[in-house]
Structure formats: C-alpha cells, structure tokens
Amino acid sequence: PPRPPYNLPKPQNQPASPVNKTVLTTVASTTTSTTPAPTESSTVARTPSSKTSEKSTEEGVRENNVLVTTTPVDDNPAIIKNLALTIIPLVLICAAFLVSAISACVFRKRICKSRKKSKKGDKDKEISANGGGTEEPMAMHQWLGPRAYSNRYEAWDSETSQNGIGGVMQSPTMMKLNQWEFPRHHLKVFNILGEGCFGQVWKCEALSIAGREGPSLVAIKTLKENAGERERSDLLQELQVMKMLDPHPNVVRLLGCCTDKDPLFVIMEYVPYGKLQSYLRNSRAQRHYDNMHAKSATLTSRDLTSFCYQVARGMEFLSGKGIIHRDLAARNVLVGDNQICKVADFGFARDIITSHVYERKSEGRLPIRWMAPESLYDNLFSVKSDIWSFGVLIWEIVTLGSTPYPGLGAAEVMKKVRDGYRLDKPEHCRRELYNIMYYCWDQDPAERPTFTELVTLLEQLLLTETDYIQLDRFPDHSYYNIVSLSGEKL
User: Fold this and answer.
1) Is residue 117 part of an annotated ligand binding site?
2) What domains, with CATH codes, occur in the chain?
3) Residues 259-269 pLDDT 10s
4) pLDDT per residue over 20-62, tens digit each?
5) Which residues form the catalytic set?
6) Pairing relation of β-strands 380-381 and 358-359?
C-alpha cells in the first residue's frame, strides 16, 4: 500500500547558534506511543514504515523515528582539522600559480624590450655608417606627391591606397642597407621635373649625400600610383645598372637610393636644363625669335656637333662596361651646365658583358623609330643596335629635335626599314656628318662602327672650323614634332 506523506512537525523557535554541520542519526523504536520530546539541540520526525489505515498509530504499527541532531563545528576539532587540510593546500597552489604567471609575463616583457633595443641599435649603427642619422619610422605608403614642407628636413609621407603598388606593401625580403642607401628623412621635395606613363622625376634637396657637406640639389625617380610589377622591375633594373658605373662626365651619376620600403627612390644628380629633345626644340623657337629681331642664334653648328660627340663618349663608356642602353634617343639625354650632355634613363638598359646580345621577351611600348631591323623583327639587342639608335639621335640633333621619319606611321616605318629605307639627309646638313649617320644604319650589324670609332670621327669634325650644320638654311616648316603616338615611345 502507498505510504502517507511525512508529517514533520514545525520547527520550534530556538535560540540562534552557529551550526556548521548536521548529523543525522536514525533510531529504531518499537513503541507506538512514546516519542522523545524535542530539545534545544535536536528535532524528532516520525517516519511510518507501512500504512494499513488512516489511524496507523492506534493499531500498533511500527514506526521509525528519525532523530536529527545538529552539532556546531566549533565543538568538533576533527572537522576543523579536515577543513584546514583541504583548504590550505588549495590556497597555496593558487598562490604559486599566480606568482608563476606574473613572473613569466615580466620575463617575456623584458626579453621583447631587449630585442627591440638590440635591433634599433644595429639599425642606427648601419645608418650612421652610411652618412645619415637614425632613420625615423615611417609607414610604407605609396608616395602620391609632395606635401607642404617647412624649412627643416622631414620624412616623406602619404596617404594609403588600396591596390597595386599604391597599397601598403613590403618587399619580399627587406634589402640590407648598403653604401647606396640614403635616409628618407634627409630629403626635401621642391617640384616635379617630368613624368611618363608610370614614373615621375622630382627635384629635391638632399642633406649630406655622396660625401657632399650640407644640402645638394638632386633628382629623384619614383613610380606613379598606377605602376605595376613590370615598371617596378624596370626601376630596380635601372638602379642595378647605375650601381655598376663609375662617375663619367657624360653619364648621369647615381647618388643614392631608398629601397628599404615602398615607394622606391632612385636618387641621381640634378641636371638643370633637362632633356636634350626639349632643349633643341626650345632653341628652334628661340632661333626663330632671334632671327626676327636680328639677334645671334642660341645654338651654333659647333654646339650641335659637340652634343653628338659628348653622347658618343658617354655611350663608349657604357659599352665598355658591357651595357646596352636599348632606348638611346634625344629624350634620354640630359643637358647640364656649360651644355654638358649626359646619357640617362637606363630603364631599358641591360648587362650583356657575357652574351653580348639581349633578346627581349616582354611586351610594352617600343621606340620603333630608333630601333635597328634586328631589334624590330627578331627582338635582338646589342651594342650594334645602340649604334643604329645613335645614328637616329644625330639626325634628331641636326633637325633640332624633330620626330624621325616624318609623315610615316609605325607600321610604315618598320616595313621601310626592313626594305632598306633610311632617313633622308637634311638640306642644311653637310655630307660629312650625314655619312656618319648612314654608317650607323648599315643593314649588317657587323659592318656598323663602334662607339670608339664614332668618337674619333666626331672629334675630327670638331677640330675643323667648318659648320657641318648650316642653321641659316634650316627649313622651319620641313620638320615637325610628334608628342605622342599609340604604341610608340617618342
């Protein structure tokens, strides 16, 4: 039969005493009417073992009395001892773990700080050894142009871009600082000198560069925001070529570079009068003005012949180093003080000291009007193809910066050159100088002269008093300048 619910008596009000533990004691009883009265330290609850009717106590059913006894912990030393043996080790273990964690954090922090100091000290030593102070930290952002500068030297800075070379980029391997590396915060920008499709050249001031005390004017070549990996590779190639060269009066000199982070900077000597092509074209306009006002011409025949001679000397130096230029033209020659010409722009240049021939495999805009037949049709470049380009450069100088093959498109130029067509002799050019040009345009590369031979031939012309370029007979309307053509470098 189901058992009735427990009938527990309500606890009586007892004085409060600190009770930490309850001890249950079960006492079996056979009496049916006698129950121990509750005391101050105990409570009795009746628990029936079976039920036969609602008045089980009257029928003599056995009852089990549950005696609940509460004993204060303070009165039991064994319990206190057990608690102490359990809690104290736990507290000691937690304390030891906390101390170990704090010690590990402090030790790790000291190691990191020591490493940072060590790296900073090594970097400062290397930069000091290369002529500069400690380099300021700078985010590797694309340089989008100059900001306003004060009179003091400041680090380059810019806003970030999200793609390509303009993004926050880091070189695959950070290049070691060497003799060419220059601190960026020693540069101060002035203005832009020129730009192409993917590159820019800025006029800047450098503090104590290349052994020079104090500030010096320099030109910095860098990449534009839209430049890709090919343009970056070309700029690095140009830098490597220039590092191979000793100073020469007719070759633009490398002063330093910034390649430890992007953007890349190639620092060159500043050549004040810019491109020979622009210099010649401006003189044509000035010559027309001087003729109208009965003034002497800005450039003379001797000046122009000297330009040819100086470029030949620069190219003789480069070819002697086993370097081909591949883009020799008036636009890539600079004019300095005292009308000194300097060969520049080595973006296409290659070192061929071992093979003597370079085969072009990449695509891009080409200087078609300056290229030899073997370069146009077989993608082969050598010193002899530079000789062909030099002949076209002489024609540019004689015609005061005119575009070669006037009136012909790129496809027509390629076909005519392959068929043996050559640039006509300008009316105001004497045969002696034109013969040197024609000598450079031999169909067989082996029959073309060397740059050493060209230097000798042009030097002989300079030793005479003859005007080989008769500027008074220059036809003002026979030649013209083409600024740009699709797919061509002009």
Assistant:
1) no
2) 178-270 (3.30.200.20), 271-288+297-489 (1.10.510.10)
3) 988 889 999 99
4) 444 444 434 444 444 444 444 444 444 444 444 444 444 444 4
5) 327
6) antiparallel
